[in-house]
Amino acid sequence: MGTVKCVGILTSGGDAPGMNAAIRAVTRAAIYNGLRVKGIYRGYRGLITGEIIEFKSQNVSNIIQLGGTILKTARCKEFTTPEGRQTAYETMQKEGIDALVVIGGDGSLTGARIFAQEHNVPCIGLPGTIDNDLYGTDTTIGYDTALNTILEAVDKIRDTATSHDRLFFVEVMGRDAGFLALNGAIASGAEAAIIPEFSTEVDQLEEFIKNGFRKTKNSSIVIVAESELTGGAMHYAERVKNEYPGYDVRVTILGHLQRGGSPSAHDRILASRLGAAAIDAIMEDQRNVMIGIENDEIVYVPFTKAIKNDKPIKKELVNVLRELSI
Ligand code: F6P
Fold first, then answer.
1. 129 touches ligand 1 (CB under 6 Å)
2. Ligand 1 pocket member 14 (CB < 6 A)
C-alpha cells in the first residue's frame, strides 16, 4: 500500500485537447482509492503562488468533452530557478501535498524531473502535448485531436487548391517534431511533407519537385512542420516563387487553432487510461516516471528516458506518403 495521502495535479506548457479528461481521471481514480486531491492552477506558477484548491469528484464533472484545461496552464520561468522550486516545495508542504501528477510536454516533465530530484518528491508525468514528441509512448494526449483538426482544414484548403490549380504550403505545429506534419499529410492525401527530422539530410523541396509535381497534377498541398530546421511554410513559398516562378503559390499557417477543440474519442480514452494509471503508479510507490502507452499496454517510462531520447519518425511512413502521392 502506498505512502501518499494527498496528490497535487497540474497542467503545464501548451494546452492540449484531452487534458481535462486526464484531470478528471486522476481526480476520480485518486478519490476512488482513498486519496485526497488538490488542483494546482496555472502550472508550476500555482505551486509557487499557492493557487490551489481541494478537488472533489464534482469539481471534474462535465469536463471530459472540453478542450483546453480547467486548471489553466503556463510556461513558468521562475520554476526553472532553484529559488522558485524551493518556494514550490514549501507550498507543497504547507498544503499537505505529498505527490505530484504533472500533465504536459517535455519542458514540463523536465521541470518535474529536476524538482523530484532536488526535493525528493514523488512525481508522475502524463504526456500531454499535441506534438507527440515524447519517447516511450505511442501517442500523447491531444495529438489525435490536433491531427483531425489538421485534416478538416486541409480538406477545405484542397477545394481552393484544386479550383485554382495552386500549390499550397500548409504549416502545422510540432515544434521540432514532424509527427503532425507527416501523418497529417498521409491522412489528408497531401503530396508531400517537409519535416525537421530530414531537413539536414535532403532538400525536401527539391525532392518534391523532382518526384513529379505537375507530371500528373495541377494542384498540390505540401504540409510543412513549423521549426527553425525547416524554416516554415513561408520560406518554401518564397523559394518556389524565386526558383520556379511558373507556380501559383499560397501559404496557410494553421497556428493555434490546432490546439483547441473538443478531444477526439481516442484522446479521451487515452487520457482516462493514463490518468487512472498515474494513480495506480502512486499507490505502488512508483516515482519519477511518465505513464505511456505502447502496443495498447500501459508502461512506466523513467523521466530521463522520456525526455532525453528522441522519438524516431518511421521511415515507412515517409515511403507510404511518397508512394501514394504520385
Ligand atoms: O508544444 C505545443 C506547441 O503547440 C508547439 O507545437 C508550438 O511550437 C508551441 O506549443 C507554441 O507555443 P505557444 O502557445 O507558447 O506559442
1. yes
2. yes
Q: Within 10 A of 223 (CB to CB), how many other CB atoms are there?
A: 29
> CA–CA distance from 257 to each of 6, 268, 275 (Å)?
36, 19, 25
Residue 171's SS3 state is strand
Instruction: Tell me if 173 CB under 6 Å of ligand 1.
Output: yes
The span from the CA of 153 to the CA of 176, in Å, is: 21
Among 144, 60, 105, which Cα is nearest to 311's?
105
Show Cβ contacts of residue 155 under 8 Å, excluding neighbours closer than 6 positions: 188
pLDDT of residue 1: 58
Ligand 1 within 6 A of CB of 16: no
321 Cβ contact list (under 8 Å, min separation 6): 182, 185, 186, 190, 192, 193
Quote the ligand 1 centre to 46 CA distance (angstroms): 20
Interatomic CA distance for residues 284 and 304, integer angstroms: 20
Judge whether 131 counts as a catalytic residue.
Answer: yes
CA of 131 to the centre of ligand 1 (A): 8
Mean pLDDT of successive 10-residue stretches along the chain, which has 326 residues: 90 98 98 98 98 98 98 96 98 98 97 97 98 97 98 98 96 96 97 90 83 75 94 95 92 98 98 98 96 98 92 94 89
Sign of CA dihedral 78, 82, 85, 89: negative
Cα distance between residue 283 and residue 101, in whole Å: 13
Annotated catalytic residue within 15, 131, 133, 144: 131
CA of 130 to the centre of ligand 1 (A): 9
**Distance from residue 108's CA to the centre of ligand 1 (Å):** 13
